[in-house]
Amino acid sequence: MTNTIFAERKDQVHRKGEEPFQMTCDKESLAGAVSQRACVFCGSRVVLYPITDALHLVHGPIGCAVYTWDIRGALSSGPELHRHSYSTDLQESDVIFGGEDKLYRALIQLIERINPKAAFVYSTCIVGIIGDDLNGVCKKVEREKGIPVIPVESEGFKGNKRAGYNAACRAMFQLVGTGPIDDISPLSVNILGDFNLAGEIWIVRDYFERMGINVVANITGDGRVDDLRRAHGAALNLVQCSGSTIDLAKMMQDEYQIPFLRVSYFGVEDMADSLYKVADFFKDLEPAIMENTKELVRDELSKLYPKLKQYRKALEGKKAAIYVGGAFKAFSLVKAFRHLGMTVELVGSQTGTEEDYKELHEITDPGTIIVDDSNPLELSSFLQEKDVDIFVGGVKERPIAYKLGVGFCDHNHERKEALEGFVGMLNFAKEVYSTVTSPVWRFTPRQQALSSKPQEMDVLNERKAIEN
Ligand code: SF4
Question: Which of 151, 154, 269, 291 could form a disulfide with 41 if both were Cys (CB 3.0 to 4.6 A apart)?
Fold first, then answer.
């Protein structure tokens, strides 16, 4: 199976236990290897997209806008401007004569029509090539219309997806520090790097509120321009998806001396640990906070554990593979699968750093394949080699799993079921259980070789018992 790895990518794949740990990462994708990664523009778009009351205008050919239309299922509790995909739709004549006039007209028309709180203008490959002065146009419109008009330097070819995250952070940072902060509590946080795909921000905010903590800004799920403007008033930044938002946290630390903590809201341990870390940070200001947090965790776990036990019984010994965008999710998923009695055979990410992969190496079992910036060919061969029961990934990994007759769990942009918080762990267990034990797999060639009638009946009876 290893002959599917291109020679140039050998250092980006590691099998735990075979040799001392060393991995290359954070480099350009290999040309022709059909990376699962997206481009710089897409990276910036997925981070900024959930700012729901801003205009998001893609300056480029229509394909770039369509590619990222409604790219995250980021839910909003109010405005939904983010769900539109506006584009200047550059044509051949614009490429020859320049697209600045078209951009100016599009911005004026859209701002007058939809009345956004701010505008983000994304640069795409072709704009980088023809050299339109995005900054100049944005400044002019900002002066005329009186709202922030922010260029996002995200030409697709400029680097990899991580460069897009950085461009998004630099764009958001232009808003931070421009709003009033007088009424913000000293026990306050900003939530960075959660995208509210299925309402998770609302679950996590509820936990913080029960602990007595005020959330100033959700960056970037269910996000608002005015909250971002006030974000420098918070006492602490909580960074979940560090790949996408750590640059913003660092900028805020340098400029406003706001410390940050890395957290994760996926899985039982990581959710509880994150709440305890926050409680620990504020315990000198509010001594009761640690006790409040313990009570909250006790209460949630007493509801969760009895139900989780049932799923674990059915899933014990099954095998999982994980390939996700940011590595933070992978850490929590490895632990979550352990809770379900399952082993993780493959784990990888599109944008992990050296530090991320070291941590993955520490928490995985011997024999686990750790992979950076993979491609469909490699992933398919690893899944077959390890004969996994479920693959966790995003939209681009789904067809790989289904073609191989393997269960799939969407842990990315498109899911509609909340997987964060204690309730999210239960939803996750339920979803893993449903897909792994689904009778549909008995029709795939892979399972036909293994299954027999009595085993199928056992599975069906067990499903009935759990579902009742
Ligand atoms: S910015 Fe470039 S790489 Fe990205 S979608 Fe547009 S054309 Fe493709």
Answer: 154
Please write the tens of the pLDDT for every residue from 266-324. Answer: 999 999 999 999 999 999 999 999 999 999 999 999 999 999 999 999 999 999 999 99
CB distance 367 to 387 below 8 Å? no
* Residue-averaged pLDDT of the chain: 92
Nearest CA to ligand 1 atom 5: 64
How confident is the model at residue 351, as a pLDDT? 85
| CA angle, residues 379, 382, 383, in degrees to nearest 5 | 85
Question: 197, 268, 264, 270: which is closest to 429 by C-alpha?
Answer: 268
**Is residue 156 in contact with ligand 1, taking CB distance under 6 Å?**
yes
Q: What SS3 string covers 62-129?
A: HHHHHHCCCCCCCCCCCCCHHHCCEECCCCHHHHHHCCHHHHHHHHHHHHHHHCCCEEEEEECHHHHH
pLDDT digits (tens, 9 = 90+) for 390-415: 999 988 899 999 999 999 999 887 78
Tell me how far apart the alpha carbons of residues 325 and 35 are, in angstroms, rounded to a whole number: 12
Tens digit of each residue's pLDDT (9 = 90 or more) over 27-74? 888 888 888 888 999 999 999 999 999 999 999 999 999 999 988 889
- Centroid of ligand 1 to alpha carbon of 156 (angstroms): 5
Residue type, 268: V
> For ligand 1, atom 3, which residue shows the shortest CA distance?
156
- Residues 193 and 238: their CA atoms lie apart, in Å, by 8
Give Cα separations from 316 to 48, 178, 280, 307, 368 (angstroms): 39, 52, 35, 15, 18
Is the CB of 65 within 6 Å of ligand 1? Answer: no
Q: Write down the pTM of the prediction.
A: 0.89
Which amino acid residue places its CA nearest to atom 6 of ligand 1?
A: 64
